[in-house]
Design a protein that fits this description.
Layout lengths: L1 H4 L7 H18 L4 H30 L8 H24 L2 H26 L5 H4 L6 E2 L12 E2 L19 E5 L13 E5 L8 E2 L3 E5 L15 H11 L6 E5 L13 E2 L2 E2 H16 L9 E6 L1 H12 L6 E5 L10 H8 L4 H5 L3 H7 L6 E7 L6 H13 L3 E7 L5 H18 L5
Parallel strand pairs: 1-3, 2-5, 6-7, 6-10, 10-11, 11-12, 12-13
Antiparallel strand pairs: 3-4, 4-7, 8-9
Keywords: Membrane, Transmembrane, Transmembrane helix
InterPro entries: AB_hydrolase_fold (IPR029058), Esterase-like (IPR000801), Mycobacterial_A85_antigen (IPR050583)
GO molecular function: acyltransferase activity, transferring groups other than amino-acyl groups
Length: about 425
Amino acid sequence: MEWLSDLSVISGPLPWILTGLGALGGVWLLAARVPWFRRKALPLCLAVAAVVTLAVYIAVEKILRPFPDPIEISIYVWIGVGLAAILLLIPRIRAGRTAASAAVSVLAVIAVVLASATQINLVFDAYPTVGTAFGDEPFDRVDLHDLGGVTERVVTGTPLDALWTPPPGMGDEGRVLTAHIPATQSNFTARDAEIYLPPAYFTNPRPLLPVLVLLAGQPGAPEDWLAGGKLTSTMDAFAAEHEGLAPVVVVADATGSQIANPLCVDSPMGNVATYLAKDVPAWVASNLQVNRDPRAWAIGGLSYGGTCSLQMATNYPEVYPTFLDISGQEEPTLGDRQRTLDAAFGGSESAFEKVNPLDLMATKKYPDSAGVFVVGSDDADYRPGAQKVFQAAKDAGMDVQYLEVPGGHSFAVWSAGLEKETPWLAQRLRLIR
């Protein structure tokens, strides 16, 4: 069944098929001719679905505002469609009166819900295949205790590929490790990290590889880089072209929960900056055999994670002199400046300016820092900000590049951004010539 797991749900015929089946299911759910269904049940179910969807919209966009940018209206529309189908199930079964009709009604609801989920997924490209949508992992996992500690023989030097010869029997694919990185100094409540280790890491002698700390968006989790971010396939492909060499990628948690937005600073919402600048590097250096030279370390991320990567690069350039900002915001925000100041900076504009990348880059020079800004060519909300911070970084003396790739604010852009810039990262981190 590997063919089914690899089937794309963001391109090709399957999204059209699922949407078509959903349309047929919707017709079936609406088509009962029983008078009480058409006059009472149908209007009531549709009204309830509309009211609940509107309430969710108001709560998310106007009251709670857990996300700094509004969610596309189409997402709420498809949520409402799926909810309406679920509400119609019982009345439609009663209206059909037969077991066969009931079975068709259940299938119709499933079809509508799947179609709605497919349309939502097409906005974000979060799950590229059937397998990823159902939690399938197309990579091998390894336990921290099975890594075997350090090897006495290592390969080091720059560029590393000029000194490296892969030993016989080296595998073709990397492995993924899930690990808890304790917040020893920050006390930040972080979720487990996902760590990619390339094929060359599992050899003896072992090359001392560079490290990329990668961050997810908000809402999001470290696992997002393994699914929609296509991290393992991207790194495995790079390793296949460079005799098993690729960066060790540590996908650390920079939010603490799926919807939290601690702004990647030290504040009452959590000491994220200290966690990423001190706790994560200390744990990696103590538990993984990697290159500890800061020139071999980079930080990157998507959306919130992209904003956070630039924050770390400007506030801690001695820790992360290299960064990859993919679809990051112009500045850390909870949606508006005053709300941001009140939540994390005690209402102080000056406290915000002390850590805000744009303000830092206006007053400091970063001649030893380098980075890439990637944004979707159709991302009207984030593209102007990306252009602004790119110019600010360039004016601050950074060695920076700007890249637009086809797409909007989605994993289609974020996965492509990582794939396109991995060679640059590898050269910058002195892994390859």
